[in-house]
Write a structure and sequence with these properties.
Elements: E1 2-3, H1 12-16, H2 21-36, H3 42-55, E2 67-73, E3 76-82, H4 93-104, H5 106-109, E4 115-119, H6 125-132, E5 136-141, H7 146-157, E6 166-169, H8 176-179, E7 189-193, H9 202-212, E8 218-224, H10 228-240, E9 241-249, E10 254-261
Helix pairs in contact: 2-3, 4-6, 6-7
């Protein structure tokens, strides 16, 4: 079993918990300089520094309590910082199921260097696993979730993934063309897990899913089916996407679907 960064290797800020983005960056830059030395190639350092700065934009929400939860996917020990004080700071069953599906079908999905966006990324388990499997990942969620999301992604992907993931704000149904113009952004896969539950933004969620799809984009959606509203959303989903049922996890009542947008 591999661990991306052991407690000895991780910067102090990453081991102890949330700190300021500047604190994380300073620790990482100092460690990189110590490793490479002053005479090392500056290009590699500049690339790492640039990637870190692009990832570190948000400060974790100051919840009263965080827990460290351990997961094992893709041969790696993954540690997620979670808090029950927010729906967006907890790993839900759909995320677990989607991670299992990704690691089992990595070659079939051709995830190496694939461009992936996750919507409703939460604490970031799915995005972390996709990154470890070689994908270029953009993890998105609501503003208050992004600090903890980027903290988990950096802690679990730095120095052990080909591509450092990116964290971006995405409010469903808002500013899509402005923030994700189709001329600039193309994704091979859209990942979504447990984004459908009892909330009032299901129509905006479907609009967002539809918008982010371009010809060739595949949407993988995993969800724990709890209420009639979940099945009602599925019916609307099928009107927009050619839908294939991929897998079911009876113990958690999670179903996984593949969708490709209908182009009439």
């Amino acid at each position: 079993m591999d661990v991306c960064l052991s407690s000895e290797q991780r910067p102090k800020h990453l081991v102890e918990g949330p700190s300021s983005p500047d604190g994380w960056l300073e620790a990482e830059e100092e460690k990189t300089l110590q490793k490479d030395g002053a005479s090392g190639p500056s290009g590699d350092f500049n690339k790492i520094e640039s990637s870190l700065h692009s990832l570190q934009k948000f400060v974790p929400t100051n919840y009263a309590s965080y827990t460290q939860e351990n997961y094992l996917f893709a041969g790696k020990e993954i540690v997620m910082q979670e808090s029950i004080e927010s729906y967006g700071a907890v790993v839900w069953p759909g995320a677990m199921a989607l991670c299992q599906y990704l690691e089992k079908h990595t070659e079939e999905l051709n995830l190496q260097d694939a461009k992936i966006i996750e919507i409703g990324a939460g604490p970031g388990l799915v995005s972390t696993v996709a990154s470890i499997l070689g994908a270029q990942v953009t993890a998105t969620d609501m503003p208050d979730v992004l600090g903890n999301l980027q903290y988990n992604l950096l802690k679990n992907t730095l120095n052990c993934t080909t591509h450092l993931p990116e964290v971006r704000e995405l409010v469903w149904g808002e500013g899509l063309e402005q923030n994700f113009p189709k001329s600039t952004f193309y994704y091979d896969y859209i990942l979504a897990s447990d984004v459908v539950y009892h909330h009032y933004f299901l129509d905006k969620l479907l609009t967002t899913m539809e918008y982010l799809c371009q010809p060739g984009t595949v949407l993988l959606w995993a969800n724990k089916f709890r209420f009639s509203a979940d099945y009602e959303f599925l019916e609307k989903f099928k009107q927009v996407f050619d839908t294939t049922f991929l897998a079911e996890f009876p113990e958690s009542t999670v179903k996984i679907f593949k969708g490709t947008r209908k182009w009439d």
